[in-house]
Write a structure and sequence with these properties.
With 417 residues, this protein is an all-alpha fold. The chain has one domain: Formate dehydrogenase/DMSO reductase domain (Formate dehydrogenase/DMSO reductase fold, Up-down Bundle), CATH 1.20.1630.10. It has 16 helices and no strands. α3 packs antiparallel against α5 and α9 runs antiparallel to α10. The longest helix has 32 residues.
Length: 417
């Protein structure tokens, strides 16, 4: 126990060690997180009236980000499956970064749910009325927190054994890895069932909601990991095989193709049948009764996704510059399509046929930015600690003096040390 506490203390101190780029990045994230905290304090004082949500549109920016981040967390499985099922050696040493991102993404998702509560101090009442197994919200609480614990155990165990220079005992993490594969699919499936199970919102009553969620998650999540690994390869000496990028590129390409096909299938069903329940889809894609707030957003998302998919299909995406550009376009496109493009239209028109548009306020936006900055801050610290441990530069038999000098210098890429 003393050695483990020493390990935690050394990791804590190491999180403050880096070059000017690291300090600049952490400063920006810290400022963003503090601005978000200040905005949330204002929301606690004045209530959800400071947001753009109303009794007509009761889910907005917060739940949109929650939905997106649940998918990003589930995408860690797209590194786990090739490594532990198909024995992909190129991704073996990189799977830990997917697990770490899952931890950060779940923390952000839970934070967005918390800020969406009007009275978070009364959250315990939800636990006292834990309507299991009939409530989908109950299932969502279980799968999200369970997935967080699974990834914390896997990451913590692998990093600590590397710190102790021991070979991980398979029985202590392999079973949890395979459970996490099923659990990762379940967290997004259960979230999708939350929406498709609401009979009063016809826009969500589609059998392809869950497959669309998974397809978009398995595209945007690995795309984010590609950008993470590209940064690691550029600013550190951690070895990232070129084949790893190409494997992730193939995963993103296939998943995004499926996602666009499912989106087209939904659009065809809504517009070709022109049923009475197509009003929400009309509002999203072409506007309804002169209200077109989301039309530019959804078509921008479709354009970004199409351009990203076109680049991924081309041989030029084998170069890091074009691959990175495609990943950025795809991440933004899926965020719009899966966030605001999915949540808000379901509330428009209201059951009475009224069109009440939703616009996120500045305070709402600041809270959201703060949560994203907090999540990226956590992820950066986790990666900062993990890289020297896995590289063998931070172990139990090396002092902190070596960490603060040798490690900071050796983490920098040649020419930047």
């Amino acid at each position: 126990m003393r050695q483990y506490l020493t390990f935690l203390a050394r990791c804590f101190r190491l999180s403050f060690v880096g070059d000017w780029r690291y300090y600049t990045w952490m400063f920006v994230l810290t400022v963003g997180a503090l601005l978000g905290l200040n905005a949330y304090c204002k929301q606690l004082v004045y209530g959800l009236g400071v947001t753009g949500m109303t009794d007509h549109v009761s889910w907005g920016f917060y739940i949109a980000n929650f939905t997106y981040l649940v998918g990003m967390a589930a995408a860690a499985v797209m590194l786990v499956i090739p490594v532990y099922i198909y024995r992909n050696k190129e991704l073996h040493d990189l799977v830990i970064f997917g697990e770490l991102f899952a931890v950060a993404a779940i923390l952000m998702a839970l934070a967005f749910v918390t800020v969406d509560l009007g009275r978070p101090d009364r959250f315990h009442h939800l636990l006292l009325r834990f309507n299991f197994p009939t409530s989908m919200l109950t299932w969502d609480v279980l799968v999200l927190n369970g997935y967080l614990l699974l990834n914390l155990h896997i990451c913590g165990y692998l990093v600590y054994t590397a710190y102790r220079r021991r070979t991980p005992t398979k029985i202590f993490y392999i079973p949890f890895v395979f459970v996490a594969i099923v659990w990762a699919i379940s967290i997004h499936t259960v979230t999708a069932f939350l929406y498709s199970g609401l009979g009063g919102r016809p826009f969500w009553n589609s059998a392809v909601i869950a497959p669309r969620f998974l397809a978009s998650a398995f595209a945007a999540g690995p795309a984010f990991l590609i950008l993470t690994l590209a940064v690691l390869k550029r600013v550190t000496r951690y070895h990232v095989p070129e084949k790893a990028f190409m494997t992730l590129r193939n995963i993103v390409t296939v998943a995004m193709t499926i996602n666009m096909f499912l989106l087209g299938s939904e659009a065809f069903t809504e517009f070709y049948t022109d049923s009475a329940h197509a009003a929400s889809a009309h509002y999203l894609f072409v506007g309804l009764h002169g209200h077109t707030a989301l039309v530019p957003w959804i078509w921008s998302a479709i354009a970004l996704n199409c351009v990203a998919l076109f680049v991924l299909y081309m041989p030029i995406s084998r170069t890091m510059g074009w691959l990175g550009l495609a990943c950025v376009l795809l991440i933004v496109g899926v965020w719009i399509e899966k966030g605001m493009g999915l949540i808000v239209p379901a509330f428009i028109p209201t059951p009475l046929g009224e069109v009440v548009e939703y616009f996120p306020t500045l305070n709402e936006t600041l809270v959201s930015i703060g949560i994203w900055c907090f999540g990226l801050l956590v992820y950066t610290i986790l990666v900062r600690i993990t890289v020297p441990v896995l590289s063998g530069r931070l172990t139990y038999d090396r002092g902190f003096t070596d960490e603060s000098t040798t490690i900071a210098a050796s983490d920098a890429a040649p020419g930047h040390a």
